[in-house]
Amino acid sequence: MIYLGLAGGILAFVTTAVLFWYCLPRDGKIHRFVGTELEPYVAVAFCSGFALSFTMILSAVLDMITPVK
User: Fold this and answer.
1) Number of domains in the chain
2) Distance, CA of 14 to CA of 31 (rounded, Å)
3) Which domain holds residue 46?
């Protein structure tokens, strides 16, 4: 189960990073959410995705290095 948490954290990180990369401006065009009322929520979603992934990864790593009693 520990490795499942680690894999889930890595998957959440990769998914969030790919979505963030997709939303970056390119060819002089901005993303469709820029300048709308949804813009702050998109930023919160990215921050939440990265925070969730790092929390899952850290939890799994700490479970792996902590001795079981």
Assistant:
1) 1
2) 20
3) 2-65
Angle, alpha carbons 24-22-13 (nearest 5°): 105
Residue 60 near residue 6 (C-beta atoms within 8 A): yes
User: How far is Cα 23 from Cα 49, in angstroms, rounded to an integer?
Assistant: 14
Examine the pLDDT at 69 and tell me if it is beyond 80: no
Alpha-carbon gap, residue 37 to 60, rounded angstroms: 36
Q: Give the pTM.
A: 0.82
Q: CA-CA distances (angstroms) from residue 69 to 5, 19, 34? A: 21, 41, 52
Rounded Cα gap, residues 42 and 23, in angstroms: 10
3-state secondary structure of 68: coil
Q: pLDDT of 2-53, one tens digit each?
A: 688 899 999 999 999 999 998 888 888 887 888 889 889 999 999 999 999 9
